[in-house]
Amino acid sequence: MTISPISKLSFEVLSAIFEVGHAAQDDIPGIERVLAGVCKDWLAIALRTPQLWTRIECSTGNGYQKIALYLRRSHSCPIYLLIEVNEDESHHLESLCQQLSSHFWRTRRLRVSAFDQTPLHSLLRHLHPIAAPFLHSIGIDCREYKEQESSGPLGIFTGGAPMLAEIRLDNISLERCSPPLANISAMYLREDSIRGPMVSSEEWLPGISAATSLTHLQVDGNTVVHDRWDGSNRVELPLLQSLCVIANNNRYTMGYNLGILHFLVAPRLEVLILKDYQYSPDHTRTVDSDTFPSLHTAILWDWEIDGAQGAFHVLLDEFRPGIQHLVCGNISEENCTRLLSALSLYDDEDPSEHGDDASDDEYSGQEDTDSESGTESNRPAYLRILQTIAIIPSKQRPYSFPLAKMRRLLVRRKSVGRPINTLHVSADFLEEVCGEFPIEEGLVRIEEWQPQILPNGNLWPVNY
């Protein structure tokens, strides 16, 4: 009889291996049952390893015995609660909450999915007084939440949650479900569409101002304020490093919810992501340079620029001059041409003379400096210290990479001592662009575009 090497391991070692495997599969159910079903020895080890039973799926209307089993086997370990309130079984929610009531304090991660606000409010009321010393993250999705039927603000875990670092609210506003925010480092607020009255700035500002430890904030257009905020009060988020603002799919409201950029002051903000916006220089303001003094990276994804000539000039003029890295993702051929033309301009050139369609051969490869003083006689008109640029053409409307426009931009920038150091392109253009700009030419370094790591460790655009 052959004895496998793993069978020689001690209980302690196998238990530790099981714990590591379970932790690595935290979002995948069932690993504890797989391990327990291998043999009687492994079953004994699994039953004596409470950490294996800490992922507890709770659905109204069924599974109460299984929930009780997992609660018992997990002993007093912090637990990962996944609560799903089914539409046809919401009347069982009270029984479920009673079963969990003496264990809510153990929650480490909480994920809730509900179909509307009535059962959700019932659950939130049970969570209202709880002190949760282990709670690290909260995720709540209410598919049919209706603000006009809300019973008002509901605080949860008011007993304290000192370890709470992340919240994700889908289709329920922060004002209707308010956990302790003082130690939150990442906040994701999303709504599918406008459903009745949106939140006013008077409601939104006090909540967001409490999140003084926030380093990453992601909101969509339906989450932010609906009124025309007058700028009389601003909220400072002193530690915020990355901000992602995503418009909804309703084209009528795309350019309308950038108000968050006007009432936030974030002295440490480094990365600003703006997605799905329709920019109009007459109606859409972007960034006030005094509110984000540390901003160095701008990511514009799925933007539409209106047809007015010179619109890109106005947009770039609104960004602070400290931008060093610019990413333009899923950009159309027309907007790509206009962007590269605008970035090629010198500050003594009239944009109206060049327009957005400056000819591809309209550049000089010669140094353009003042021969007597040795100082530059020309400077780039926009984003003067830009060092890297990423151009990711639209996949929905494919087109050839604008090599001539890009060369004009690179040569003009280099001729006045403000070169673009790195050009990022998608994999399907990498060979072509590298052939046009060989490394021995020394004009620019070409790299394949990869999802970018934000200051808080998240990747963009993965999982957005």
Report the C-alpha radius of gyration, rounded: 27 Å
What distance lies between the first and last C-alpha atoms, to the nearest angstrom? Answer: 53 Å
**Strand residue percentage:** 15-25%
Strand order of the largest sheet: 1-2-3-4-5-6-7-9-11-13-15-16-17-18
User: Average pLDDT across residues?
Assistant: 78
SS-based structural class?
Answer: alpha/beta
Query: What is the count of helical runs?
Result: 13
What's the count of strands?
Answer: 20
- The low-confidence runs, each spanning 5 or more residues with pLDDT under 50, are 249-256, 355-376
**Helicity level, as a percent range?**
25-40%
Strand count, sense and barrel status of the largest sheet are: 14 strands, parallel
Shape: elongated
Describe this structure in words.
With 464 residues, the protein is an alpha/beta fold. Among the domains are: 9-52, no CATH class; 298-347 and 383-463. Helices cover 25% and strands 19% of the residues. It contains 13 helices and 20 strands. It has helices at 11-24, 31-36, 40-47, 64-73, 93-100, 117-127, 201-209, 260-263, 311-318, 333-343, 351-354, 403-415, 427-436; strands at 55-59, 79-85, 107-114, 137-142, 166-170, 186-190, 216-220, 235-236, 242-246, 264-265, 271-275, 278-279, 297-301, 304-305, 325-331, 388-393, 422-425, 445-448, 452-453, 459-460. Strands 1-2-3-4-5-6-7-9-11-13-15-16-17-18 form a 14-stranded parallel sheet. Strands 8-10 form a two-stranded parallel ribbon. Strand 17, helix 13 (427-436) and strand 18 (445-448) form a beta-alpha-beta unit. Helix 10 (333-343) packs parallel to helix 12 (403-415). The longest helix is centred in the N-terminal third of the chain and has 14 residues, at 11-24. Residues 249-256 and 355-376 have low confidence and may be disordered. Residues 348-377 are annotated as: Disordered. Residues 358-373 have a biased composition (Acidic residues).
